[in-house]
Structure formats: structure tokens, C-alpha cells
């Protein structure tokens, strides 16, 4: 797999992983937390509403109790008088206290006095019948029973009732002297219609939006009971929560519905999802750019470099300054390796053009040098000279001494030739066996003759003992040609032709006595 493909794969897997991670965090951590918060807030609203209902009811209960323990009322129940009614049971006072109906009964459940607000005149008789237990549904009574009265059990009872299709909060308290000394005189019942005014009052207390729906006439399937006043725990988030309140005869009466402020847990919509994915993509792309810039690019660079060098033998160093230390180290190691590789390559190249025994240029190196000389000659830039140098009677030398001594003599002669030619623009090469070749960038017969004589002399002066043909020392014969710069149809001739003529001169030198120089002009 290529690095580019790998980085693409990495990018896509990163994108998918981060997206999955974000979704997992959203669904498993964020959403449940928010959900719990919303449930909690809805629970608060429910508790506030319940408290507001109680607070509103408490006013009526307290008022009813205040009247019930008022000694003057005890006397009034025993002996009703218009004067007491005119002075104390004022409709305005009940109106201000938001009381819609008041019934004062004697201990034997005889009605003594009643007050009915104009708003409930239609349901007034039903309400009274309900209180006294005379309605169709109400066989029981809200008044204290005769048994309770005779047992002198003081009581208060209150609750919500649907009466004539309207919801009332009704409270009943036994009337008895304030000191508690004396018999129960009767009971006072106060009723308040749960109307818009009261709903506004409860809403004002609780700041919670709610509705009360009358269910007494509903023909719909009965709803499961869930008591608004005693239930305490909300479990799930809903736009609204409803409670069915049944009356004391277990008929469904009203439904109280709280309309919650926060209606649902936040959900990811399409725009948010796109935005989220965009942000994730940007983050991941930025990370990938960093990764690519600081990690993948250097690796691609290395790879290209290695590919280039293997294609065309060109070795280039890679930049050694990187953001990541490890990449820096790899670069430095790579560059070091490159240097060692180049050194090795040079060494190997040298070996291919170097004679193993004498360590001077071999025939291959000679040919490369000769190519340059020939090219320059073909282009009439310069002439040159070639000398073939052959050790005299070397077979005999080997035979007299041994092969190793022959090797040493060869090395000494090579060194001597190199030293002698050191100050010339020339190449000394071992041509093969005991034969050497010298190419000099000079085409003047006089100077070449001088150079050749110097070479011959230098070898003889080595004084390598070799007593043959009347000489005491090892000698060389030199045959050579001078190739002038300007030569007609030079381009038709190759180095091989020059070499052949030099060889011919060497042959002459050998034949005519050895230890001598024979030169000629190339023709
Ligand atoms: N020791 C040694 N001898 C070599 C090497 N290369 C060639 N020779 C010997 O050089 C000798 C050359 O002998 P010939 O070609 O007969 O010529 P020569 O004896 O020098 O006689 P002339 O050239 O006519 O003077 C042979 O005996 C080769 O074995 C080498 O690398 N080391």
C-alpha cells in the first residue's frame, strides 16, 4: 500500500472513529445528563404547582376554621338572628375572600344560613344537595355525621369535588366554642369554584402553566388514576404531564395538566449534525495535514529519493531539519548511509579501472582516458602521444628469481613510471603482463623523445639486478607514436590504430637491441 493510500485510509478511519466517538459521547453521556436535568426541572414545576394548589386551599380552610371556633357563631347557630347576619356574615367579605358558597348547618344537619355567589347560582342547589348528601351520586355527606356529633368528635374535612360539572374545593369544619368547652353546635362549609380567577391565583403562586379539564361528562375510555396530590416522582420527559383526579365516589372528575416549560430533551437536528461533521472533518483534516507535513511527506521524500537513486544512480541527500526528532534521526542516518554508499561506490568504480597488482590504471581506465584524447584530437583541439613500454627479458627474470620477485619488479617499474610522469599531463597504465602504456597530452616529437628517454633511464636507474644481454639491470624498451593535432581525416582513426603503430615501434625497439626508445609520427 502506498503512503498516499495509507494516509487516505488513515484520514477516513480517523473521521469515522471521531464521528463515532462524538456520537457515543452525545448519546451515552451528554444526552442522559440533559435528560435528567429536564426531568428534574419538570419535577420542580410539578412540586411548585402542587404547593400552589395547597396554598390556595389553605386560605379557605383557615377562614372556615376561624369562623368555626368563633363563639358568636356558636350562639348564632343556637339562635339565628338577622342582626348577626347583617353585621357579620357579609357577602362582600366572602367575595373578597373568593368564597363562592357558605353553608352553616346545625348539629342535626339542618341548614341555618347559606351564602351563594352569583357565579354559581346555576349549580347552587346541586352544590347544597351534594354537601348535604342528597344528590344522586352522593349518598354520603360532607357534613359531620350524627354519630360524630353525638360522640363530640371535632373535625375538618376538605377536598376537590366535581359538582354539577364544575370543580370545587370544599371545606367543612365543626363549629364549637373557642375554649373547646361546650358541645358541637353544627358545622360550617365553604366552597370555592376552581375558576379562571383561582387558576390565575395558582399560576401566580407557582409560575407554572397548567390546565384543569372537566372529565365528569367525558365518554372517553376511563383513564388510569394517578393522584395529583400524592404522587411525587416524574420519570420521563414529556411536553406535558396529566393527572386524573377522581371524586370520592371514584368517578373520573378532572384532569390537571402541567404544560412544561422545557418540553423535550435537545435532539440533534440536520443542521447541527452537518455542523458537527464539518467541525470533525476540519479537525481531522488539520491533524492529517500536520501528519502529512511532518511525517508522511518526509517518508514520501525518502521513498522518492531511494526510487530516483535506484533508477538513474543519482544519490541526493534528504533535508535533515524536521519537526519530529525521530524523522530528523532517520534523515541523518539516511544521509550518512548515502555518504558511505557513495564512498563504497567510488571504491568499486576505482577497482574497475585499477590494476590489482601495481595499483595504477588498468587497460579499462586507459581506454576511457584515450577516448577523451581521441575526441579532442578528432575535434582538432589537441594532439597526443602514445608510448608502449615493455620490460626486457622478463620471462628470464621470472625464471631466474621467482614469480613473486617478478611481481615486485612489476610494482617497482610501475611506481617509477608514475613518478617520472607525475609532472606531465599524462596517464600511465598497465596494459597487460609486463607491458605498460603511457598517453601524454603533447604532440611534439622532441619533448616526447625526451620524456621517453627519461622513462627508460629511470627504470634502468632502479638497479633491479638482471644480468642479461650485457646489462646488469632490468631495462625497458619503448615504442611510441606522436599524433599531431592537425591530421587529415583524423576522425577515421581510432585509438586502436594509434596503439597498433606504437606497438610496431616497440617491436622495432625489441628487435634492434632492447633498452631503447623508437618513436615515429602517426601516419
Ligand atoms: N611475475 C609476473 N610475471 C608476469 C606477469 N605478467 C606476465 N609475466 C611474465 O612476463 C613474461 C613475458 O615474457 P615474454 O612475452 O616471452 O617476453 P620477454 O621474456 O620479456 O622477452 P622480450 O619481451 O622479448 O624481451 C612471461 O614469462 C610472463 O609469465 C605478472 O603479473 N607477474
From TrEMBL:
InterPro entries: CHASE4 (IPR007892), Diguanylate_Cyclase (IPR050469), GGDEF_dom (IPR000160), Nucleotide_cyclase (IPR029787), Rev_trsase/Diguanyl_cyclase (IPR043128). It holds the Pfam family CHASE4. Signal peptide: none annotated. The chain crosses the membrane at residues 270-291. Keywords: Membrane, Nucleotidyltransferase, Transferase, Transmembrane, Transmembrane helix. Residues 382-522 form the GGDEF domain. CDD domains: GGDEF. It catalyses: 2 GTP = 3',3'-c-di-GMP + 2 diphosphate. One of its GO terms (molecular function) is diguanylate cyclase activity. It is an enzyme of class 2 (transferase). Its EC number is 2.7.7.65. PROSITE patterns: GGDEF, PROKAR_LIPOPROTEIN. PANTHER family: DIGUANYLATE CYCLASE DGCM-RELATED, REGULATORY COMPONENTS OF SENSORY TRANSDUCTION SYSTEM. This is diguanylate cyclase. It comes from Shewanella aestuarii.
Amino acid at each position: 500500500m502506498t503512503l498516499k493510500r495509507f494516509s487516505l485510509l488513515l484520514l477516513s478511519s480517523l473521521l469515522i472513529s471521531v464521528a463515532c466517538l462524538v456520537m457515543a459521547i452525545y448519546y451515552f453521556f451528554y444526552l442522559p445528563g440533559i435528560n435528567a436535568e429536564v426531568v428534574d426541572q419538570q419535577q420542580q414545576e410539578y412540586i411548585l404547582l402542587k404547593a400552589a394548589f395547597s396554598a390556595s386551599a389553605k386560605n379557605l380552610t383557615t377562614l372556615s376554621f376561624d369562623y368555626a371556633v368563633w363563639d358568636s357563631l356558636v350562639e348564632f347557630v343556637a339562635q339565628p338572628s338577622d342582626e348577626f347576619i347583617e353585621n357579620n356574615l357579609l357577602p362582600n367579605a366572602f367575595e373578597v375572600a373568593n368564597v363562592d358558597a357558605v353553608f352553616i348547618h346545625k348539629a342535626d344537619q339542618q341548614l341555618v344560613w347559606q351564602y351563594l355567589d352569583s357565579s354559581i347560582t346555576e349549580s347552587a342547589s346541586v352544590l347544597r344537595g351534594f354537601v348535604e348528601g342528597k344528590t344522586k351520586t352522593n349518598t354520603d355527606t360532607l357534613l359531620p355525621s350524627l354519630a360524630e356529633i353525638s360522640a363530640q368528635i371535632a373535625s375538618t374535612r376538605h377536598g376537590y369535588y366535581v359538582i354539577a360539572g364544575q370543580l370545587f374545593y370544599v371545606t367543612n369544619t365543626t363549629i364549637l366554642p373557642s375554649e373547646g368547652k361546650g358541645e358541637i353546635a353544627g358545622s360550617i362549609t365553604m366552597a370555592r369554584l376552581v375558576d379562571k380567577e383561582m387558576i390565575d391565583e395558582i399560576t401566580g403562586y407557582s409560575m407554572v402553566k397548567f390546565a384543569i379539564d372537566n372529565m365528569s361528562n367525558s365518554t372517553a375510555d376511563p383513564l388510569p388514576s394517578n393522584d395529583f396530590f400524592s404522587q411525587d416522582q416524574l420519570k420521563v420527559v414529556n411536553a406535558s404531564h396529566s393527572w386524573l383526579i377522581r371524586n370520592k365516589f371514584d368517578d373520573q372528575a378532572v384532569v390537571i395538566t402541567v404544560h412544561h416549560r422545557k418540553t423535550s430533551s435537545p435532539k440533534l437536528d440536520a443542521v447541527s449534525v452537518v455542523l458537527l461533521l464539518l467541525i470533525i472533518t476540519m479537525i481531522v483534516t488539520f491533524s492529517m495535514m500536520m501528519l502529512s507535513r511532518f511525517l508522511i511527506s518526509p517518508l514520501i521524500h525518502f521513498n522518492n529519493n531511494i526510487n530516483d537513486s535506484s533508477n538513474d544512480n543519482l544519490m541526493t541527500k534528504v533535508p535533515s531539519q524536521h519537526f519530529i526528532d525521530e524523522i530528523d534521526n532517520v534523515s541523518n542516518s539516511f544521509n550518512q548511509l548515502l555518504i558511505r554508499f557513495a564512498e563504497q561506490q567510488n571504491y568499486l568504480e576505482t577497482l574497475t579501472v585499477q590494476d590489482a597488482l601495481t595499483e595504477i590504471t588498468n587497460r579499462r581506465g586507459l581506454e576511457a582516458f584515450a577516448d577523451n584524447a581521441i575526441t579532442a584530437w578528432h575535434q582538432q583541439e589537441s594532439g597526443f602521444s602514445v608510448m608502449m613500454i615493455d620490460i626486457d627479458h622478463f620471462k628470464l627474470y621470472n625464471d631466474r628469481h621467482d614469480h613473486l620477485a617478478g611481481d615486485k619488479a612489476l610494482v617497482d617499474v610501475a611506481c617509477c613510471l608514475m613518478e617520472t610522469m607525475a609532472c606531465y599531463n599524462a596517464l600511465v597504465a598497465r596494459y597487460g603482463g609486463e607491458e605498460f602504456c603511457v598517453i601524454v597530452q603533447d604532440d611534439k616529437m622532441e619533448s616526447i623523445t625526451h620524456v621517453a628517454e627519461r622513462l627508460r633511464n629511470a627504470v634502468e636507474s632502479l638497479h633491479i639486478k638482471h644480468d642479461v644481454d650485457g646489462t646488469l639491470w632490468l631495462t625497458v624498451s619503448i615504442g611510441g607514436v606522436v599524433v599531431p593535432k592537425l591530421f587529415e581525416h583524423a576522425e577515421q582513426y581510432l585509438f586502436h590504430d594509434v596503439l597498433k603503430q606504437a606497438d610496431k615501434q616497440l617491436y622495432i625497439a625489441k628487435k634492434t637491441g632492447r633498452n631503447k626508445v623508437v618513436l615515429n609520427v602517426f601516419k
